[in-house]
Amino acid sequence: MAVSPLALDPMSPLIPSTPRDPDGRYRYRHYIDGVSCDPESGAWFETSDPVTGENWAHVPRGSVADVERAVKAAHTAFSGGPWPALSASERGALMRRLGDLIAENAPWLARVEMRDNGKLMAELSMQMRYMANYYYYYGGLADKIEGTVIPTDKPGVFNYTRPEPIGVVACIMPWNSPLPLTSLKLAPALAAGCTVVLKPSEFTSASLLEFVKLVEAAGFPKGVVNVVAGYGAEVGDALVSHPLVERIAFTGGPEAGRMIAEKAARHMKRVTLELGGKSPNIIFDDADLDQAIKGAVAGIFAASGQTCVAGSRLLVQESIHDEVVERLKAFIADVRFGHPADPATQIAPISTRPQLDKIKSYVAIAQAEGARLVAGGEPASVEGYPNGLFYKPTIFVDVQNSMRIAQEEVFGPVLSIIRFTDEDDAVRIANDTRFGLAAGIWTQSMRRALTMANRVRAGTVWVNNYRSTSTTSPFGGFRMSGVGREGGIAGIREYMETKSVWISTATDIPNPFIRR
Ligand code: NAD
User: Fold this and answer.
1) In this structure, which of 2, 7, 309, 380 has its CB flanked by the most CB atoms within 10 Å?
2) Is the pLDDT of residue 509 over 80?
3) Rounded distance, CA 234 to CA 353, Å?
4) 79 and 223 assigned to the same domain
5) What residues are labeled active site?
6) Torsion of CA 89, 194, 98, 48, to 10 degrees
7) 290 and 250 share a domain?
8) What are the pLDDT digits (tens) for 348-387?
């Protein structure tokens, strides 16, 4: 059933709205040095609604010139003026004000995000409300990052450390969870005292260009937060290459991540890379199967599998393999597709057309490799949305871990089921991947849970649950899944340098030719 378009209009904000063109589409602008501004190129591109296919907004196409202005503004704001003059406690207070504004405006942010990436409103409304916590948590942490006095073994000197903000940070985001992934970077960077240039995905720029109005309303000084929209090869690349950018905080695919790491290394820039995964979700024969089935569904079919932590390899112990396959098939047999705003909808569309094409190509690859399709494997047609990018939950069995479908990230609702015999076999298969982002373990044995949590190589391990995260807990990947951590106290350290200060307490410098 089609939902009334009026109910979907994203623009009934509590603060002034974005202007519309005569064609009814919203026209967005960059946000640089405290003002909304047109792109230097004079060019915009379209953003579309994945449910209706309608182009609903014009997004500014950023260029090197826009990046230059934004980075200069961020560098100026970092180097002098009101921002560095604020105490850490005052920065924290500003951030908490931003958190309050996010909480108040969460429904509106959720509607804009849904319109751009098609995620379920039921999930988005929780995510957007929760997002305020990033600013409360890191705002609270801002004045609690302490240096240390070092008890050195050298006489006549006093040595202490001072954590300092790293400088201008460029944050580059993907399309699957634009605002929460921005906040995982922006909140600790601001708490540390950095200034920031944000680049949203070219597929989902609108929510960030709306969000930044809240940053302005909270009272952050100009230049502290800037947004330049545009393409990866243009805006993203210019940010990574810019000499005044000290750190790149990137979330996205492994290919772009590798290119960014290589380029950043040339300029000796710090990087945080949150990349993809091929996470194993492991069901043992002693698991509570009702819960494990829900965990498998949450792992791969929630958000149509468009999550970095997707449990895309389901490792199932041999004795329960057939039962798990049948129960999963039954669970997804009558899932409800529909508009993401409809509370009854369980499966929303794929966010972008290129992503839908990628899913189709991997399904063909899996079949050519000899994996056996037992569910889905094709787009879903949904009444009322002929142009919607819907795809059916898809299950392959008889998957060998060496197949591309088990080694490469699909980022869609495609599950590969792989059999295992015992714990050693499960560990061998789970770790036989270039990734290491997350893993799930389903067992009722405490011994097995602890042993497996130790042996599986992944940045996050969930036992008898899947996809839990918190602003207070570090998140990141082993191996090709990334570099660095976001979230928790570890998250703020990524935006700081440690300075070691030595003060002489001696009255004389002895022989200056000898190092003491
Ligand atoms: P992507 O790599 O195509 O793009 C991500 C961002 O990088 C976009 O803003 C894009 O414009 C920019 N970009 C692309 N090429 C660039 C370049 N050469 N230089 C600078 N910037 C460049 O990823 P995507 O398709 O938007 O997102 C999906 C990917 O993100 C998946 O692989 C997924 O696993 C990953 N992801 C990871 C996490 C995590 O926390 N580990 C979370 C969400 C998504």
Assistant:
1) 309
2) yes
3) 21
4) yes
5) 274, 308
6) -170
7) no
8) 999 999 999 999 999 999 999 999 999 999 999 999 999 9
